[in-house]
Design a protein that fits this description.
The protein is built from two helices and 23 strands.
Amino acid sequence: MIGAISRNKACSGSPTPETKSSKGTYITAKRPHRAAAARQGAGVAVTEQRPRQLLSSSPFIRRLTQSLLVLPAYQALPSAADAPPAFTEVGLRYTRYSEDSIDRNAVIFGATDRYDIDITQLWIEAPVGASWSVALDVQNDYQTGASPWFIGAQQDGDPGVIMSGASIQDNRVEVGVTTRYFWADGNAGLSVSHSDEDDYEALALAFDASWNTADDARTWTASASSSRDTLNPTQGVIPVFITEADLDTQSGYFGVSQILSRAAIARIGVNYTYSEGYLSDPYKFRDQRPDTHERVALSAGYRHFFIDHDAALQVDYRYYADSWGTDSQTLELGWAQNLSRSLLTPYLRYYSQREADFFSVIADTDASNYADDYRLSSYGAVTIGARWAIALNDMWALEFEAERYMSDASWGLYEGEAAPALVDFWRGTVGVTWRFD
């Protein structure tokens, strides 16, 4: 995630859920930072003739429609407005993530059911004085299921999956606090978060700043983050071979957004992340990865508002490359349509990834580094989904989102061996937000 803190990802840059190991799969269920609506000042300037709904008496409806004109927070990267929130916001969100069962014909041994995860998030954000805001986020993930342990050969010689069994259960709690200072032409924020579960603990610190040019047509954004993760694998159905390991990660981001016309805005940015420490997956039998990992991601986005249709076209592209030989490309198209007191955004995302240098379908344990993790293989993926935000009144709002993710080795742009354990999943979200003075 650009400019954000994250634990070890087996395939950074992938639209698949964030993963720390085969034992657990984490979903980014974080609420969008208030910065998603923060470029409202710029967004209004983009269109001299405002859509009819921008004149609504509801501040929330105005925020919904204005958000069509601007770029999003973009994976939790702040670019907040130059004033603290005018109200206190309390929100509750629930997300359900469910992976499809693996094909029985591809399994040599073990359960075919895969991961189900329930994510609950509570947050509160409030102004403090005339120039500050503070936010508290609490997230709980409960996950059960099985994942691939290693890949072996079936009787016919084709690769087959040995699963971990269906007894894995884990619970994670993450707490984060963010404080932000606003001045006339910009803002800066400091975030601290702590994540804890049975076998993993992480402490992260992040700083970001955004500042505008004198004409408010351009916004520069920079951020830096650091995290310290400690892994204590638990012995269970899957035997593990380490007792404790550490991982340090530093990340930096720099980007700019520019108003192009009264109906268009674009952004570009670059992110660099460096990790050092234990990067292998302790819950996989044949997994030995390098102890350093460098990642670079280039991203671009474009928004064009169509006044006659009261809607906006959204286009986002991301290129990713790392020191493990993996590179990937992501393209997402969306259409944000204003409806009566609501905003509906269907979207389509395509992702393609090149396999890591040390990946093979059946791990080559004679090499210095090796892995058979499908998340490091070459493949392509398609996601189709929709988000729906509804303003019940000036104080209450609802949100819904549903998406379907499908992957296949033949859909990718890059050549490579087809991994037998690629995942498909469903994800659904429902949330409620209460705003008050």
